[in-house]
Amino acid sequence: MEEPAELEALLEELLELSEESEKKAQEKTEAKEETVEKERQQAIEMRERAMESMGVTRKRCQEKDGESAKAEKRRRRSGGNTLEWLRERAVAETEMKEKELEEKKKRQCVRRQRCRAFSLGSQKDSEVPHQFDPL
Q1: Residue 129 DSSP class
Q2: HSE value, Cβ hemisphere, 13 Å, CA-based, for 85
Q3: Taking the C-alpha atoms of 61, 67, 73 and 77 in order, what is their torsion angle to the nearest 10 degrees?
Q4: In Å, how far are 7, 26, 28, 32, 46 from 35, measured between CA atoms?
Q5: Can you tell me the distance from the alpha carbon of 56 to that of 11, in angstroms, rounded to the nearest whole number?
Q6: What angle do CA 75, 80, 83 make, to 5 degrees?
Q7: b/e map 117-128, b = 16+ CB within 10 Å
């Protein structure tokens, strides 16, 4: 009678071992599936990041840093500031052009005076006879 009990014990042990190996195999496949799913999700996220615009990327980074995306929103300047700047620029340009004109007039006066002085000097030289001609 000991043989059937021994056989039953061995069969039970075999069943337990096969169940354990099946559980281990199941756990391994589940772990592999989890890692594959995680990698797939990471790949999808990377693709989405690569395809998003700079504005969306900036907002996402600000949200990660804890800053609100609305705080960074730019405001459009009013037309009054632009017009004021244009007026100031026009005034500055006209002042600069006036200064340039004055400098140009001064240079022309100096040139005229030099020309007159030169022409007067050459007239005096022509009146005085030359003793010898260097040429």
Answers
A1: P
A2: 6
A3: -130
A4: 42, 14, 11, 5, 16
A5: 63
A6: 115
A7: eeeeeeeeeeee
H and E: helices and strands count for the chain: 3, 0
Residue 51 token pair: 């395809």
Q: Structure tokens of 65?
A: 């840093």
Q: pLDDT tens string for the chain (135 positions)?
A: 467 788 888 999 999 999 999 999 999 999 999 999 999 999 999 998 888 888 888 887 888 877 654 555 666 666 678 888 899 999 999 999 999 999 999 999 999 998 888 888 766 655 555 555 555
In sequence order, which ranges of 52-78 are alpha helices (DSSP H)?
Answer: 54-65
Tokens of 72: 């960074």
- 59 within 8 A of 69, measured Cβ to Cβ: yes
pTM over 0.70: no
| CA–CA separation, 9 and 16 (whole Å) | 10
CA dist 112 and 89 (Å) reads: 35
For the stretch 31-35, contacts whose Cβ atoms lie closer than 8 Å and that sit 24 or more positions apart, written own/partner, are none
